[in-house]
Specification:
With 454 residues, the protein is of the alpha+beta class. The protein has 13 helices and 15 strands. It folds into two domains: 298 residues, 2-Layer Sandwich (archaeoglobus fulgidus dsm 4304 fold), CATH 3.30.2170; 103 residues, no CATH class. The strands form four sheets. The chain has a nine-stranded mixed sheet, sandwiched between helices. The chain has a two-stranded antiparallel ribbon with strand order 5-6.
Length: 454
């Protein structure tokens, strides 16, 4: 691969002709010819696979919307040492009332003065060393990241912390039969390769600062996320950034659910919680889908819960566009219709796989996917909590509680500024996203100046 010069010498560019060796290689030719792409719209026999549902008018109890979105950018504080990197995260939670949404949804553009009228915007910021940087007097990048996450969760926010929420969530303190222990696959102070076996987090043994004592060092409650397992001391922790973003976005929602549940649980009947992305946890954090499903099932049984994830890109969105805006004929999924994606359909038409041997999302999702073609011609890929991991094998509407109320409100939250977006997510993204220019440039300068002042 080519490299750029650090001084006055010329850049080392890649040669312009070497692609011919790949194109003419018989092994490569044979490999490419035997690959299969997702099916085109005219190859889809969707009617034989799914039952379409028409969204019908229904009573709408929703009065409030809480949307969460987040993002990150990577900065290099030392230009002569670009392999040293920080990641800056910013997350936002925005509370809307029905009146706010109805007023904004009619506007073709949203202006700064409109944003000022929104209330209860909360921002949560995090800086994380991800490569060739140590912090907190730690001896390794892994422990620097562990301690940084622990400190972030310990910050007091409105007389509460994310750590209190995490304890409530992990040990299921909301239920009639809370858990006493949570098992980690290993002691995070040790190398995974040592094969030390599981480490039990016993609630009665937890210290006042949400740590546990181990012969090898402190174990933090935040170690349940297992992010430390994906940290490479040489190559860095860039691989955890997407996992961490999705994790914190959803735990912010749990934080607000906990608050509402503690002080006025009946309000759960009128709140719709919205997150950007599917209802799943990815990578090392995938184990969090089990306690999240337990929480959702408890609330749906004992009180109520309206929760939805909205996808804006990826293979499911591309497929939804195909079947709803069929360029070769009439749309397969018509306006006002939705359908529940089955395991068989997912592997047959959207992502390659064998549905007889594979179960989509069974180890990471706590919800099932729905494609919805709204009356005003917007196409949404949504995830709604389901009762168990097998719900998408042969999906039934009864396992997607409050589905039609959620779809009704998603349609109501239309946003004409962006493709198939909704007002809460569009604004949350607008208010917390970190752009390459000028945000990244200014953060570079901020970090460099801060390090020099120390």
């Amino acid at each position: 691969m080519g490299t750029t010069s650090r001084g006055n010498k010329p850049n080392e560019w890649a040669a312009k002709i070497n692609h011919t060796h790949i194109i003419n290689d018989p092994f490569i030719k044979n490999f490419i010819s035997n690959c299969f792409l997702p099916k085109d719209v005219d190859e889809i026999d969707i009617k034989s696979e799914q039952i379409f549902e028409k969204l019908l008018p229904t009573n709408n109890p929703i009065q409030h919307f809480l949307a969460v979105d987040g993002g990150y950018t990577i900065v290099e504080p030392k230009k002569q040492f670009p392999s040293a990197q920080f990641a800056f995260f910013q997350f936002g939670a925005i509370l809307f009332g029905v009146d706010d949404v109805e007023r904004l949804s009619e506007k073709p553009f949203i202006f700064p003065e409109d944003m000022k009228k929104l209330h209860n915007l909360q921002r949560f910021k995090l800086a994380l060393p991800i490569k060739n940087i140590l912090s907190h007097n730690q001896e390794s990048l892994k422990n620097s990241i562990r301690k940084t996450l622990y400190d972030f969760f310990m910050i007091s926010r409105d007389h509460s912390t994310f750590m209190e929420t995490l304890k409530w969530f992990i040990f299921q303190e909301y239920s009639d039969s809370p858990k006493d222990t949570y098992s980690l696959s290993n002691d995070p102070n040790l190398d995974i390769s040592t094969g030390t076996g599981s480490f039990e987090l016993k609630k009665e043994k937890m210290n006042a600062d949400y740590t546990f004592d181990s012969p090898n060092g402190k174990v933090y409650l935040t170690d349940v996320f297992r992010l430390h397992e994906a940290v490479d001391e040489e190559h860095g922790a860039g691989g955890i950034l997407g996992y961490l973003t999705r994790l914190i976005e959803q735990l912010i929602i749990v934080h607000f659910i906990k608050y509402i549940y503690a002080y006025q649980a009946t309000l759960l009947n009128s709140f719709l919680f919205i997150t950007d992305g599917p209802l799943s946890f990815s990578g090392q954090t995938a184990n969090m889908h089990k306690p999240m499903r337990n929480l959702c099932n408890f609330l749906k049984e004992k009180h109520n819960l309206f929760l939805v994830g909205l996808e804006k890109s990826g293979p499911f969105v591309e497929h939804a566009q195909q079947i709803s805006l069929n360029p070769k004929g009439d749309p397969i999924l018509k306006n006002g219709e939705y359908f529940l994606l089955s395991n068989n359909y997912t592997y047959k038409y959207i992502t390659p796989g064998d549905p007889t041997k594979m179960h989509y999302g069974s180890t990471s999702y706590y919800g099932g996917k729905i494609i919805f073609h709204s009356d005003d011609n917007q196409i949404f890929v949504l995830t709604v909590p389901t009762t168990d991991k097998d719900s998408n094998l042969v999906p039934h509407k009864k396992n997607y509680k409050n589905l039609e109320v959620i779809l009704l409100n998603i349609q109501k939250l239309k946003c004409h500024m962006y493709d198939d977006s909704i007002i809460p997510i569009a604004l949350a993204n607008k208010l917390v996203s970190l752009a390459n220019h000028p945000s990244k440039v200014l953060l570079d300068k901020f970090v460099a100046a801060s390090l020099k002042s120390d």
